[in-house]
Amino acid sequence: MYFLENKEPLKKILKLCIFLLIIYIFLNYVGSLFLPFIIGYILCIILYPLFKILNNKYKIPKPISSILCIGILILLVIFIGVGIVGQIVKEGKEFIKDLPYYIQSIKNTFDELNYKIQSLMKILPDGLENTIIGFFENSSSILGELLGNGLKNTSIKVIKKVPNALMITIISIISCYLMLIDKENIQKFIVRQLPKKYANKFGIVKSGIGDAVFGYIKAQAIIMCLIATVCFLGLLLLDAPYALFIAVVIGIIDALPVFGSGFILWPWALYNVITGNYGLSIGLIIIYVVVLLTRQFVEPKILGKQIGIHPLATLMSIYIGLQVFGVFGFIIGPVIMVIIKALQNENILPQWR
Questions:
Q1: Could you tell me if 255 and 319 are in contact, meaning their C-beta atoms sit under 8 angstroms apart?
Q2: pLDDT tens digits along 68-113
Q3: What pTM did the predictor assign?
Q4: How many of the other CB atoms lie within 10 Å of CB of 332?
Q5: Which residues have C-beta within 8 Å of that of residue 168, sequence separation ≥ 6?
Q6: Rounded Cα–Cα distance for residues 350 and 353 (Å)
């Protein structure tokens, strides 16, 4: 009855649903076709301030300014890639090479633990005893199969996508070059295609969405880099193997609200307790505490200031994004939430009551 008497809330809900449906259709069916141009536009936005300085202040022609900007970006990527990324890849390869040894070590640890527990199970009923013993007997083999098959399948997928990634990279660079040269005219063309009532708001909405989305990405990147740095220094002091590679993995996983750095550090610490390596175990727990305190201190100041979205809403957006868009939903989900928030701030979409 309420919606029959007052149709305005129904219109706002319908508008929001249509907006989400358009985003879903675009990302799921059309987005991959425009991916190089989306990447090119993002690069264009990043490089545009430098482009304006070269073109306006130093009077360098637009084509040359665009080439210089892209050249500087490529040199920076190569510098970082050869140094940091190169070391991460090197340690990652070594880790994968030694992984069978670690899997076997974990299986042996489970077998030893199983043997010790069996002697304590005699006082339990037969059914419960068999269940517990069976769990420990099967866990190590299941873990080994999951790790082995998962890494094998991932490696095959990565190898198959290398040629496609190279093509996307080349087209992205070319599109970035063309967008830098003619950015103002491209924006005017887009505005002319919009209905008049939205054309006037285009600049405000574009600025609001851009600030929110890039604010979120920047905030997450800062937090991830900070957590990875803390982990790297801690693992380096502990003389742990593959310190940089594991620190980067922890930095990425720590961005997940549910998992966090404890998803890696706690099982690792527990394993070292079982194997008697108490020094490394204590060190890993200390790293976890430092990471937890760092995140608690830094996250509200960086992430909250940038987007102002409740952590529960962020968690929901990540989960829904993963379910709808797969692994990239980890990024796409929160970005869509940020866009909705920005559009609400500009009164394009209805506010939450």
A1: no
A2: 999 999 998 888 766 777 788 788 888 888 877 877 777 777 777 7
A3: 0.63
A4: 23
A5: 35, 36, 39
A6: 9
| Separation of alpha carbons 335 and 321, rounded Å | 10
* Cβ-based neighbours of 336, under 8 Å, separated by 6 or more: 20, 23, 317, 321
* Number of residues that this document lists for the chain: 353
Q: What is the mean pLDDT of residues 329-348?
A: 74
The 10 Å Cβ neighbour count of residue 300 is 11
- Using H for helix, E for strand and C for coil, what is the string for the chain? CHHHHCCHHHHHHHHHHHHHHHHHHHHHHHCCCCHHHHHHHHHHHHHHHHHHHHHHHCCCCHHHHHHHHHHHHHHHHHHHHHHHHHHHHHHHHHHHHHHHHHHHHHHHHHHHHHHHHHCCHHHCCHHHHHHHHHHHHHHHHHHHHHHHHHHHHHHHHHHHHHHHHHHHHHHHHHHHHHHHHCHHHHHHHHHHHCCHHHHCCHHHHHHHHHHHHHHHHHHHHHHHHHHHHHHHHHHHHCCCCCHHHHHHHHHHHCCCCCCCCHHHHHHHHHHHHHCCCHHHHHHHHHHHHHHHHHHHHHHHHHHHHHHCCCHHHHHHHHHHHHHHHHHHHHHHHHHHHHHHHHHHHCCCCCCCC
Q: Give the separation between CA 22 and CA 45, rounded to whole angstroms.
A: 24
Sign, CA dihedral 292-293-296-302, equals negative
pLDDT value at 312 more than 50: yes
Q: With CA atoms as reference, report the closest residue to 353 among 5, 6, 4, 1.
A: 6
Amino acid at 215: G
Determine contact, residues 229/295, Cβ cutoff 8 Å: no
Q: In one letter, which amino acid is 204?
A: I
Neighbouring C-alpha atoms within 13 Å toward the C-beta of 318: 14
Q: How many CB atoms lie within 10 A of CB 216?
A: 22
pLDDT at 297 over 90: no
Each residue's pLDDT tens digit, 105-141: 777 777 777 666 666 655 555 555 555 556 555 555 5
Are the C-beta atoms of 245 and 236 separated by less than 8 Å? no
| In the block, residue with structure tokens 């430092």 | 290
